[in-house]
User: What shape does this take?
Amino acid sequence: MNTIYILSGLGILSLVGAMFDLKKMLPFVLLVGIVVAMISGLYYWGISGSYFNQMISLDRFSSIYFFVLLFILFVWFFAFSRDTVLHEYGFEKLALIFFSAVGGLFMISFNHLVILFLGIEILSIPLYVLAASHRHEAGSIEAGVKYFLLSSMATGFLLFGIALIYGATGSFHMNEIQTLVTSHHMTIPSLLPIGIILTLIGLCFKVSAVPFHFWTPDVYEGSPTEFTAFMSTSVKLAAFAGLYRFLVLTSDPTHHSMVTILLICSILSIIIGNILANYPSSAKRLLAYSSIAQAGYLLIPMIYIQSDTQKVLVYGLVAYLLASLALFTVIYAMEKTAGFIEIKSFNGLGKSHPVLAFCISICLFSLAGIPPLAGFMGKYMIFTQAMSAGLNALTVVAILFSLVGVYYYFKIVIAMYLQPQVEQTFNFDRRILISIILLSTLLVILGLFPDLLFQL
Amino acid sequence: MIAVSLIIWPLVAALLVLFLNATGARAFSLFAGVVELGLVLFAANSLVGNQTTLLDYSISWISYLHSDFHVGIDGISMILVLLTGLLIPFIIWSVHRDESNVKTSSFYALILFMQAALIGVFISKDGFLFYIFWELALIPIYFICLRWGGQERGRITLKFFIYTLTGSLFMLMAFIYIYQHTPAPHSFDIQVLYQTAKSLNSSTQGILFLGLFLAFAIKMPIFPLHTWQPETYTMAPAQGTMLLSGIMLKMGTYGVIRWLLPMVPLGVVAYGKLAIVLSIAGVLYASCIALVQTDLKKLFAYSSIAHVGLISAGMFTNTKIGIQGALLQMVSHGIIVVALFYIAEILWRRTKTLEIADMGGIRLQSPFIASAFMITMLGSIALPLTSGFVGEFLLINSIFRWNAVAGILAGFSIILGATYMLRAYQKTMLGDVNTGQPSFEPLSIREKVILVLLGLLILLLGVFPSLIMNISEQAVDNLLNIANLKIN
Amino acid sequence: MITASFYFLSLLAIVSALMVIFLRTPVYNVILLVITFFCIACHYLLLGATFLAVSHVIVYAGAIMVLLLYTLMMLNLNKADEPNRIPRQMIFGIVVAGILGMILFGAISRIDNNQINITANGQIGGVKNLGKFMLKEYLLPFEAVSILLLAAMAGAVMLGKTKDPNQTIESK
Amino acid sequence: MNEVDQTVLSGITINHYLVLSIILFSIGVTGIMIRKNLIILIMCIELMLNAVNLLLVAFSRYYGDANGQLFVFFIMAVAAAEVAVGLAILIVAFHHAKTTNIDVFNKLKW
Amino acid sequence: MTGNTLIGLTPLLPLLGFIILILAGRRLPEGVASLIGCGTILVSFLFSILLFNSIRTSGQEEFQYFNWISVDTFKVPFSLIADPLTSLMMLVITGVGFLIHVYSIGYMHGDEGYNRFFAYLNLFVFFMLLLVMGSNYLILFIGWEGVGLSSYLLIGFWYKNTDYNNAAKKAFVMNRIGDLGLIIGMFLIFIHYGTLQIAEVNATALQNSTTGIHPNLTWITLCLFIGAIGKSAQIPLHTWLPDAMAGPTPVSALIHAATMVTAGIYLIARNNILFSLSPFISEVVMTIGVASSLMAALIALKQNDIKKVLAYSTISQLGLMFVAVGNHSYSAGLFHMMTHAFFKALLFLGAGSVIHALHGEQDIRNMGGLRKLLPITSLTFLLGALAISGLPPFSGFFSKDEILMNLFTTNKLIWVLASISSMLTAFYMFRLVFLTFWGKLRKPVDHIHESPLTITMPLILLAALATFGGFLNFPQVFGGQQKLHEFLLPVFTESSKILPLNELSHSEELMTMGIAILLAIGAIGLAYNYFISKIDVNKLLAVPRGFVQNVLSQKFYVDQIYEAVVTQPLQKISGFLYRVIDVRWIDGIVNDYGFIVRESSSKFRFIQSGLITQYILSMIIGIIGVLIASKFFSA
Assistant: This one.
């Protein structure tokens, strides 16, 4: 709980900072604040409990998610805050990021549908603004419009689903719903499955699973890259955490409807994401498609929830988030010199910036699922889960399309090491370098010693 | 402990190398390779002296997956570790000094990294660990090819990478499947995997066989999964080709011996025939294609496919003669093919071409390289008293015992092999000097020493094949005991 | 009487909603939407949610729709600047939405036919009851909404307020 | 107020409200699909949300449970916030494109 | 020194010579090189004599270097054996070899590859000794392949010349075809007898024969025979031998006449029990032998290259030897092998001397009248020709006669054919002699002089051997003692028990001799008639006319047939496999996957059209789809 307080406080603090010109000092204070929030999140490590009339429940996993979200926020803040503050409405943007993160925290720990709903909205609404925050760029505005419209519509469906769930159970409280689902599943009216499905669709929209993914490439590409970096990481994290929580609390072992949805969504995401990623020349768009595909992989373990699905999901998510954040950070840094970043823009990076190129390669390899990086371990666990659930055919499809993934991730690797250097010389901020190195090192360490996460 | 140090030392050396300049890196990595060879020989000595405790090491690694960092060296592993330890110094040393502006320290680091991964593949006793090393070995070679390769390297390396990855992912699926059928706290330990897989029913084993076989067949490669190989060999830098053909290819053959034959005996019963037929078809097919190759490296590449097809066919007969022959032939092929590609590199450095038609009369200019080529070629065409002979003889013998027609067809490779290798030798070395060629710079001492050592190895193993076969004998017996338990 | 008013309100709501989506002049759309909202507010009254009905009118008709109308006027958007609608797309949209509606109908068709009855607690829709709920059980969402509104406000201001496009710290 | 409260809505079942709200919801969805004016789209979304609200209130009455109504408050708050942000985006977009037709926002694709 | 050590040392000496010579390369002066080259062979020869002596008393000696291969039941020691058969072969190899080495000193003088030449020769002797001394098939096979390699190296010794290189390659590859047969034979032997020790195999086969002939024996012997065909240049693998004449003449003498090509005879003699136990294959051996003999003799009639004539004559003589071993008269075959080594080496060296004197001229159409210019050469050559033609008392007469005599009792048809072949031999040999040494020089060459002593000395020695070698096995009908036959007897005792040869009555024996002598004299007379006394020689040597002449001068078109049936199709198929199957199909399919992905990417991208309306529509359709699907699956 304290984490949520602190983070909200930090958001308000940065709004205050916007009023008084505090560019020198405040970012550092905020950074410290994030660290404090991170530590406070760890306070709930061993304790699991419910708060506010059981609207929020915290347990080990939500504290892990908290920690990961805050860690991402920390890295994001470390890498981008200085630049962001210098722009117009810098502190407002930071405040929006904090608020958005608060929304994420709600989604992670919700135990009541109103919190889920509010969490989603608190997460999203600042992001609509941030997506459109480069008010003079057509792409940014377009991203904002698209994100806003599609997301609002998805919210409509989500709400309709929640309303139907309420209609079927008479409660918004997850515990009560769960009791009803598990004990009386034969007598529950047919409103419930439809309600759950519609809610799931709303959540699937947030994780950008096909066929609810349409916003993803356009928004990721159009938004200012620093916010894309945040979007592609924290939103995914919160959405997956929320989705998992929702599934666990409402799933009825005898009911196949959710299985069907998730199965369809994950297969389609893997196929469409991987195939479409081959076309674009824009690096951001490529990563956007790849994030769709990754979402598809991450949906696999949730099809049949098993005892260790949670762990697998956390691991897979972390592996994806670290790599994705690092890559968007790189793109951000390059955009400052080159403007629009295509795959071509990476040409020759292997020679001019060997360390950076190495780190980028690690991230790409991890996303492509090459051992022994975290991305591979994540995929491995996911496939194991799928196979133990008997989804052998799905595993084969996933494997085949992950090979397609190798193809497009490697386009960047090849550009870095094979192609002659482009004329532009990129300058990389020390902060950016440090964050990328940190992230890629984590990928290696987590890959080699997955127990670090699994023993939690 | 020594087993772990075999992996750790090259890794440490690879890291250290990164901090040196190109010349220093070359010297240091060579030193590291030699030290590693010393370690390997020490390990071999321990193995012969039956101090097997030194060679086994296990520590809990991923407890969630019940996968241990379990490495151990038995006779079969020892042979391949020896091969790796032996060839890497040559490969490092084969880098020409004036390439230091191109081949920077990262090149040597990658080679050493590769060595660590390869040794890891050969000594892993845990399925998951094996898979990790298996893929890990792909990364350095990928970068070596990508950064220092030739024409079209982007496309070709990617194809190579994805191709091999495809196979290994199916292997992974097979492993996962077996793992999930291991008794309750699951385990990736090789013995547990053996026992589990063997207890599965025949059709399941068949499917597992196909999954595993795909991975190994692509790596070797076996017809018709071979098309990545000639391109890659041609494009890769000399050292990359040597690594690929000399050692990396053996990952596939080793995989068959260690992870396929004992794992799914019923699968071998069901599909072993298919494997042998494909292998032999590949032998003839690749030999025929080698007949019409005009590019020296491509010719060697196809000849390599032919030789490996023979190894594979021999292994799949699942007999001691076949497997021992295969092991011997792996070592022999490793040495020979490295020598061949090194010769190609030497020729390329001087003539700037690999087209056979553009060379000729090199023997007049440099009798030394002609002799080296001759010895290597003799090894390659399996002349008795060269290392190639005994292995090939045992392999064809095992195939012949399996099926006479298959044996005879496999035997045709010795005729075709002689034809294309002699043709290559004649067109490059003999005849009069090709008028279009620049004067042939004499070989340096370094080049001569490498070739002499490799040549001596070829002859040594031809005269004393038992040096290799004694090492693996016990291990092969054990392996066959496991593999045949269910059939009998 | 109540049944009649239910049907009347429903019909009005549906018709005006249909006109919202089919009429092409934005101002009419807004007015008709307000009518729909009023009908819905009346339904709330029928259902005993008195406070909600009032807030609904205030928030939607009073605030949101005024805001929309204001924007329309400010930007002078009243002319229908949509190109001639392609009937095919319109028909397609209607068909798809119809299918969606049918599916939803199909899903709920098996619900029990209970009439809506007054339950023991007749005061659930009252201010007092809702207030208690809001500030006790729903304290957290209540606070969360404040964050949401703060964020929305900051965001809207950020986007809406025009500064000199070149006025960034960097350019100084 | 008591009179209303205590009156049985005779003949009106929960299904009636379900049907009504589905119809309104579908109309909202139809509007989103067939209209291209951004501001109308926002309105259609509001229509969808109101359909949900109506349903929630009906269920609230059906169960005699205030939670449903409280949820409606939050939806209203969120709707207001969304409209605010939406209109802000709309203004920015209008300044940039001089139109509110969403079909002009098709630069980001493929 | 015991026999044991001698066995071990004998082959090592030439190897040592080879190693020294090849390592020293051109740095060694010619004198030293020839000293090493000849010296090692001479010592080997002396050892062989010592060994011969010890064998005569002990019968058989064995020596094992180390254990070579040991896998499962497959155990092959690196061991050598010496028994009478081996000893005979060793004496021939080292003895004739030594003479040829000495000859080479003069012949190769001044060649830039002088040292290399001696190195290769030594290597050859080493492998040849391994071949005959190997106690098991695998050691034999080492030598078998090794001599092939030496042959390859020596044929292509002048490697600048592409034709020579092609000839070398052809020889190697055709040998390999035979080798494959031998390998498969070994597999079969191993499968059926569980060992590769020659002695054990033969002993086991003998034991088995009491219970009935093993059916696979036919296959085994056939495979071995295929090996022999390849090495000994019999039909259908004979075409490499004439081409092999590209090598320096001493090579032709040593490898392609005296020793290597007789390895096939040795192989069959070594496995005499196996062959005796499979009469059918023996028939095949005889048939192939006589066919090769006849065919080669016919071809030799129209050859104009002095060495080619001798090459075909070698094939012909080898055919005769095969007839002998196929007829189970092994010692007769070996006897002929020995005498053939003498006189054919002599002939080749003589031819070499001629070529040397004429500065490389090999075409007999350009020669003539050399009798006076090269007296020693022509005399020795004539002796050799008389020996090969089978005139008494030269060695060839006795050995050939023994073969024919044995044939007469078993197979009259083959006897007739063999007799015709030997008559043809006499004819073409004397055609050669007359055209070369008689008449007058048709194409004048400057500075023709007799060869140096290093060349003539071996000629004289070999001439002596060719002349008197026959007395080693002097027929009993003339009251002689068949020393060689007796010496070899222990090797062939068992097989002669299986198939005892019919003893010929003395009258019959004399009759066959008489026929043979008459035929030979007649042929020589005919040759004299044609090439000296009667018609215009130049006309005879002109372009061949008519079908028969064409066929003969084109060597029965065998090379052309092989080209059309094997080589060309193989090239075509290979090219097809590479360009169509490999590149277009197999690789094409692989590449197509990448293409499909890229294509589908550029096709499917249209779902991401950028239009919000479409996105909304698609999403709602997606929702509908999901709802329907869940409904469908939950039911």
